[in-house]
Amino acid sequence: MKPSRALLLVGVLACHAHAHAAEPTSPTPSLPVPAAPATKPGDDFDRFVNGTWADSHPMPGDRGWIGTWPELQARAEAQSRELVERAVQDGSPMGRLYASALNQEARDRRGMAPLRATLAEIDAVHDAESLVVMLARLARIDVGAVVIPMIGEDDRAPGQRLLAVRQAKVGLPNPADYTVADGPGVARRDAYRRFLAALLEASGAPRERIKPRVDAVLQLEGRLAAAQTSLADQRDAMAGYRPADVHALGQRLPQFAWGRWLAALGATGVQRVNVPFQQALAAQWAIVRRAPLDVVRDFLILKTLGAYSRYMSGPLAAARFAYYGTALRGVTVEPPAWRQGMDRVTNLMPEALGRAYAARYFSPAAKTQAVALAEAVRRALAGRVARATWLSVAAREGVQAKLMRTRLSIGYPEVWPDVPDVDIREDDLAGNVLRLNAWRFDRAIGDLALPIDRASWTSPVQVPNAYASASANHIVFPAALLQPPMFDPAATAAENYGRIGATIGHELSHLFDDQGRHYDADGRLRETWTSDDVQRFDARAGALQKQLEGYAPLPGERVDGSLVLGESVADLAGLEAAYDAFVQAEPGSGHARRASDRRFFVAWAELWRSRYQPAYLRTLLHTDAHPPGSVRLSTVRNLDAWYEAFAVPSNAALYLAPEARVRMW
């Protein structure tokens, strides 16, 4: 759940970070307090609420994490499976794609054939200009290397699209993993090395040449990783907007054949390109230019094979799982074939599945109630902003105007997107993926000159996720998110406000968090606050960042406060607004108030109950802008009502003196 400013042309429909959910279970009802808690709420609120659940739910071998969010994902996945298996019987494109994912015999028989033409093109790269063209061609089939294209809303011209470039990811999650001499990073690097070696072997490379080729690619990737802009710095909205006219691009990234790159993308009519974090991109391009061409070609070959390994033969898929599943996520058992097939349909043909999902599982009555709850949270957040006297009157009025103009999309889009017009074959999964990726890429490039359709979405209806777009001043809650245990029309107000209410508040507050505040009510990127306003906001955010950095979810692995700050600001602001809306919906005082509040805060804590494989948690701490569940739920320590509801004493581990509690709004 994070702000969405652009649509990547590589990884257009990347899964939520926490994919492969646990099996569906019945949602646990929120109680005033859990039965016979062994831990006091003020010492460890996660253990107090979720300890009994954690003790009774061992980590399965085929999961990187379990908890409420995976349960929600599993529920949506099971619902979607019904629809997709019906589509198989009907012989529809969606059904044929699913059938091709389950047809391992055909994948083994085809071997490397689907990628032979692409690999031959890579082998033909002979200079910097042909390399630039190859990077563009790879982007068209969802392979990102060095410089990759993305399309988003022009932050200074709301409603218009803008082509941008960004740095591609390298294979290891932490840049330090390429050079460390001991610790978990060495194990990750060794696992990555084995994965790359398996890819080269599958491509037919001579065995005696595999090790030196892999070593050379690792060295190249290590240099690229060292030159990259950090994930935390990439959050900077102002630094991320650096458009230039095409004729001036040579000054932004010297010796990069921009004309050839744009032509290969099919974007010859583009006049402006956004080139953020130029120093890092220039440094990376210089590294690639200095590298021997045979090493660069191997780098591109491995990027391509790695991206498509999940769609190909059994050995390739197994090699990928050993790295991404076991080494990075701690998962020791592969998900069943049907779940992998569902993942392919959800990510590659979300439009057809989403329309069927909304019709089957999201009733008009549920939508009406969800809209009413969202409006209640919006009013509560606007009230908090109005009372935030630390902010200037002009800034408060600007935030309120933006908040009341924010579009709330609940359930499904007003206008459904087109279903891909692609030849889908039951015996050609990798070919299907190639054609679908190319279709989406070409469609996105073709739409560059068109105004943005405000009725459109970029989030699949059948995936339980939500997002906020600061440039569109828009928040989206797909139908799959509005299911138990997140939202239930028959649930108590405490459960619904403590879960979906806080989630709605989270997304709304993203629009004026440490990055969203740079966008005005029209979605235009410009500074609307005074320097004093910014300083006072940053003081609050800085106090929260310091609080976050005090958590160590794994021994020796602390939370990166700068990386997770935006999501944590939204968590706190969303919880504050949801609580105010809950009090309005269920008023009371004295003992009745405290009992109601206990139910609310328990519902919030249940929302974030989680268990992780240690390897997966370590990966997330380096790569995910969202803190772990135990950290997210502990933001209750900043709300006075939590202390009163649970009579938290001043000597409790989570206790913060009133003046030390962070109050965002």
In short:
By secondary structure, the chain is of the alpha+beta class.
Describe the structure.
The protein is of the alpha+beta class and 665 residues long. The protein is built from 25 helices and ten strands. The strands form three sheets. The chain has a five-stranded mixed β-sheet with strand order 1-3-4-6-5. Strand 3 and strand 4 (161-167) form a beta hairpin. Helix 3 packs antiparallel against helix 14, helix 8 (207-227) runs antiparallel to helix 11 and helix 19 (493-510) packs across helix 21 (561-585).
Structure characteristics:
665 residues; alpha+beta; 3-stranded mixed β-sheet; 25 helices; globular; disordered N terminus
Question: What's the topology here?
Answer:
Layout: E1 6-8, H1 45-55, E2 65-67, H2 68-90, H3 93-102, H4 104-110, H5 116-123, H6 128-140, E3 147-153, E4 161-167, H7 184-202, H8 207-227, E5 243-245, H9 249-252, H10 258-265, E6 272-274, H11 278-290, H12 293-308, H13 314-329, H14 337-348, H15 350-361, H16 364-386, H17 393-405, E7 407-411, H18 429-446, E8 467-469, E9 474-478, H19 493-510, H20 531-548, H21 561-585, H22 590-607, E10 610-612, H23 614-623, H24 629-633, H25 640-646
Parallel strand pairs: 4-6, 7-9
Antiparallel strand pairs: 1-3, 2-10, 3-4, 5-6, 8-9
Helix pairs in contact: 2-3, 2-14, 2-15, 3-14, 5-12, 6-10, 7-8, 7-13, 8-11, 8-12, 13-23, 16-17, 16-19, 16-21, 19-21, 19-22, 20-21, 22-25
Query: Which percent range describes the beta-strand content?
Result: 5-15%
Total count of helical runs of at least 4 residues: 25
Query: What's the β-strand tally?
Result: 10
Sheet with most strands: 5 strands, mixed
| Biggest sheet: strand arrangement | 1-3-4-6-5
Give average pLDDT, whole number.
Answer: 92
